[in-house]
Amino acid sequence: MVCDSIHGEELIDINGQVATDIFLAAQQKFVMILTQTLQQAEINGEIQLQNLELDAGQAASTTKDYRLILRKLIEMFEKAVVPK
């Protein structure tokens, strides 16, 4: 949502310049939470990341661009969801 807002690019650029340490910590936390979520989904049999030859950490760290992460995650979930 931020990226698509009128001043999104500007806010992201300023965020990277002013609060790099906070931004990096938030990014690491995001990847950690996403990794844990993917691991739990795999344990629960909701997804199968081995179909993609990835583990949860690799899947969560696909890229640092969140819009690209979202696109990749959607593609991964489409391929990894186990039909019941």
Summed up, the helix count is: 4
Task: Report the span from N to C terminus.
Answer: 33 Å
Q: How much of the polypeptide forms β-strand, as a percent range?
A: under 5%
- Helical content stands at 55-70%
Mean pLDDT: 77
Tell me, briefly, the overall form: elongated
Low-confidence stretches: none
As an assembly, this protein is single chain
Series of H and E elements: HHHH
| Largest sheet properties | none
Please describe what this structure looks like.
The structure is a single chain. By secondary structure, the chain is mainly α. The protein has one domain. It is elongated. It is 65% helix and 0% strand.
Task: Give the gist of this structure.
By secondary structure, this protein is mostly helical.
Give a topology summary:
Blueprint: H1 8-18, H2 20-43, H3 56-60, H4 66-80
Name some characteristics of this structure.
single chain, 84 residues, mainly alpha, elongated
